[in-house]
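quick one, 362 residues, struct below
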Amino acid sequence: MPPIRPLHLAAEIGGPPRYDPGHYTALARLAERGALDFVTLGDSFARPGPDALAVLSRVAPATRRIGLVPTVTTTHTEPFHVSSAVATLDWVSRGRAGWQVDVSTTRAEARLFGRRPAAPAAELWREAGEVADVGARLWDSWEDDAEIRDLATGRFIDRDKLHYVNFEGAAFSVRGPAIVPRPPQGRPVTVVDGTADPARETAARHADVVLVQATTPERTAEIRADVRRRAAVHGRDPDTLRVLAALTVDLGDAESAPEPGLESGPPLAAQGTYYRGGPVDLADLITQWHRAGAVDGFHLTPITPGRDLERIVNGTVALLQHRSLFRTFHPGGTLREHLGLARPANRYAPGRVLRVVQGDRA
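---
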């Protein structure tokens, strides 16, 4: 039997729009107490609510270890601005930022901006891949030690260590360099839901974490293998990908049996990736799927965040920790460290390594 990989867990803290930052801070702190890798906060131009990236920038100084991953829509937005905002979140969180890439496909959303018509999903995901590509290049456009801050000479930046990216894509071009120094993680963690094409192709090319929705461990394992194969075709090391099964979770009635959905083992609800049951059964499902090698972990979306996240952390996670299947503390200070991912080398400074500790600059 192959060795069991480390288990990774993440949770969504969104829900009906809330305009109280304390609500999101409390949920993030709860997830942090459970040593989860990261929390996500969904966002979309199709619904009202606060900007997810801005909210998590507010949450960042109130937390210490948990990764923070807002949804960022690449359609109708400027890639340069997206790169700068995500890099800023990495700085204010001292290396705990990621971003979940999404696209906007509807005519109603396009009319909000009035700059371009709605486009097919395949076209928009190709564009999203270009945004992820240029974002990584902009994050590398400052070498780690480009800042000098020499008061005696009045030099703030070593211009030889700033680089033009000169990116030319199908939908936009970006010259660069960035206006924000290279983030503490080098490149913040990129998350993509790769359940379906063409998002899966974008995930294989650019994602660090891939979310998949499937009803059985066998189907999840098939998608994981496909993503890893595609990544290898693009010259990536498949072992640098973390594939998480995405489940919507309802723990509102912990005393009743979950609805049937799986042929064996702890069941899912009939809707497929919607789980209804108790914290113990959820822990059993996570254990079974992970030990089968189907996934590297789980991304859980509570139906009712305030209620269900507490039951996930104090029930499901506590049981997994008791079984020695999940850690009891964060292994490092950055999201990449939680995920077991190395800090990427700067493409413009090959062979040069500079250690950056949790976002602290000299």
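DSSP finds ten helices and 13 strands in the chain.
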